[in-house]
Amino acid sequence: MIISLRLRLLLWLLIPLTLFVAISAALSYRSARQTADLVQDHALLASAQVIAGEIQWLDGVPHASIPPAALESLVSPEQDQVYYQVITDHDSLLAGRPDFPLALRFPLSAPAYSTIDYHGQMLRVVSEVRTLYNAGQLHKIAVLVGQTTRAHDQMLAGLWRPSLHRQIAMLLLAAILVVLGLSMELRPLMHLKDQLASRDSTSVSPIRPGQLQLELRPIVEAINQTIQRLNTQVSAQKRFITDAAHQLRTPLTLLDSQIQFARRLSDEGRRSEVLQAMQESSRNMTELTNKLLLLSQAEASNTTAFLRQPVDLMAVSAAVLEEIVDLAQRKNIDLGLETKIQHAWVMGNEALFTAMMMNLVDNAIRYTPVNGKVTVAIAASQEQVDISVADNGPGIPAEVRNRVFERFFRNAAPGQDGTGLGLAIVKEIVIAAQGTVTLAAGEQQRGLAVLVQLPAIATSPDEETASKI
After folding, report:
1. Which residue, among 345, 377, 240, has the nearest Cα to 300 in the 3D structure?
2. What are phi and psi of 133, to 5 degrees?
3. Fewer CB within 10 A of the end CB, N or C, for the chain?
4. Among the listed residues 122, 196, 189, 107, the one whose alpha carbon sits nearest the alpha carbon of residue 153
5. Cα-based angle 373, 401, 243 (whole degrees, multiple of 5)
6. CA–CA separation, 70 vs 54, rounded Å?
């Protein structure tokens, strides 16, 4: 396979041009041959007519005299040989050579032309028939004149070869101009290649198209879009590292201080209290680390490398509620699921949707007081799936509802647990699934309701397979 763009473009041009030259050369050869045949045939016919005009009756016998003028028109610089024959319809030879082909002597139509191999050389022959009357009887006399084709072939070459040479020269000139043109037009692309090769490995700035042709600019745009996506990923990674370092620094410092304090204690009772506090710090740090890792996954979920498949949010929600029910029972919270559907199919990643539901329900339980109520409601249509998680807790003031999706922003009472990452994780997962998430007041303007809307898919994979069967 030819991988050179220059050579491929050259072939795309030269193949049809070569075909055109071949067809044009064939047509030129045909035209030149017709012209050469016409000139030679005209001279042969004129000679035959002159000879036929000199046939006379003498004493009741036809007599043919060959005047020099009859053969002068056939004289050529190539010294072609001329043969002739005059014969009656009774096979009586009046003049010339007796061994001309019989088939040409009395053709059905006159004059008749033919090219024959005569004694090892090509001969062009014309047959002209003259009708004579003698004593009321009709006689036919055939005059055959033949000439070798050296002058004919020379004329054919003179008419055809110059045209062929011009066409070949034009073909070669076109090839040279195409190679030069491609070399010049590919210079901006080579400059782009050099620009990419010389870039710093950490550079994420867009590429300038410069003098690149209009047809090639989409390539630069696609590269710039890729760079932009890489820049987004790099920024997300840097932000994650910065957030992780900032958020883990405080609990690690606290844990180190608790360890140093415990080492100096001799009272077992006080040491037990410090160890319990250390365990709580370790648990909080583990929770924060898990949240940060989940946030990183959520940010990466909108890339093509992340697995996307049909997910039943009804099954996901039921599993999450079953897992978290113990936490609700400890606070005597009424945790329930309200729905009129059996399935709610969306496209995405099941693990991330599980994390989304877990964060929504966990936040609702965490900020709802004892003996409160948390309700998960799911509804679906052909276009979208609606998920609502509502509680009757203290709620969030309208002026700060948009800020709760920011990382580490918390609208909690002093001393209340939380990392400030739950709703940030939810937002990233919802955006990756091409959905929306909004906040509103709960029932009777009490508490908080989180509404998630996701695009629905028509059927489950099993149902699609069954319909095809």
Report:
1. 240
2. -115, 135
3. N
4. 122
5. 105
6. 10
Q: Are 228 and 206 in contact (CB under 8 A)?
A: yes
The pTM for the full model equals: 0.48
Indicate the CATH number of 307-468 among 2.70.40.10, 1.25.40.280, 3.40.50.300, 3.30.565.10.
Answer: 3.30.565.10
Reference 430, options 341, 312, 301; nearest CA is 301
Per residue in 90-122, pLDDT tens?
A: 888 888 888 887 777 787 677 888 898 888 889
pLDDT tens digit string along 38-57? 999 999 999 988 888 888 88
Report the alpha-carbon distance of residue 336 to residue 389 in Å, rounded.
10
φ/ψ of 402, rounded to 5, equals -70, -25
Query: In angstroms, how far is CA 248 from the centroid of its own chain?
Result: 48
Residue-wise pLDDT for 259-275, tens only, equals 777 777 777 777 787 77
Sequence spans of domains, the chain:
5-157, 214-299, 307-468
Q: How far apart are the first and last CA of the chain?
A: 43
Give pairs for 29-35: CB < 8 Å, separation 24+.
29/156, 29/160, 29/164, 31/159, 32/156, 32/159, 32/160, 32/163, 33/156, 33/160, 35/155, 35/159
Q: In whole angstroms, how far apart are CA 292 and each of 1, 288, 366?
A: 50, 6, 19
Provide the token pair at 429. Answer: 């997962």
Query: Which of these, 390, 332, 339, lies nearest to 361 by C-alpha position?
Result: 390
Three-class DSSP labels, 300-330: HCCCCCCCCEEEEHHHHHHHHHHHHHHHHHH
Phi, psi of 182 (to 5 degrees): -65, -40
